[in-house]
Amino acid sequence: MSLKIRLARGGAKKRPFYRIVIADARSPRDGRFIEKIGTFNPLLAKDNADRVTLDLDRAKHWLGEGAQPTDRVLRFLDAAGLMTRPARSNPKKAEPGTKAKERAAEAAEKAAAIAEAAAEASAE
After folding, report:
1. Is residue 86 part of a domain?
2. What is the Cβ-side half-sphere exposure of residue 88, based on CA atoms within 13 angstroms?
3. Within a domain: residue 49?
4. Please, what sign has the CA dihedral across residues 39, 44, 46, 48?
5. pTM, two decimal places
6. Distance, CA of 66 to CA of 33 (rounded, Å)
7. pLDDT band at residue 36 using 50, 70 and 90 as cut-offs
8. SS3 annotation, 37-106
9. Are the CB atoms for 40 and 7 separated by under 8 Å?
10. What is the pLDDT of residue 124?
11. Torsion angles phi and psi, residue 39, rounded to 5
12. pLDDT at 19
């Protein structure tokens, strides 16, 4: 059985609240879980101590049993000092696509043509 340390959503509409749980990877997000080891309240300020509560002893136990944390939970474990999260870098993510590049080139050509026409008109 592959275990995951993941978030299970609770709370009302537009008011999220998450439980940090140990669950079988095949079970649904908000479905059956084995053990609750903490909570996460994203509505609280980032420096608030109650934003993330985590039972570190149980987290260590389940990590020793082979449980794999999701990316968000890995951030919490990294902040607590239990695991290290590798830095990510994707510089091409912000780069525009080919169509957007083509549109930008066309717009630049039009702007250059308009500026050239305006310069000729003012010179005469």
Report:
1. no
2. 6
3. yes
4. negative
5. 0.70
6. 16
7. very high
8. EEEECCCCCCCCCCCEEECHHHHHHHHHCCCEECHHHHHHHHHHCCCCCCCCCCCCCCCCCHHHHHHHHH
9. yes
10. 67
11. -140, 160
12. 95
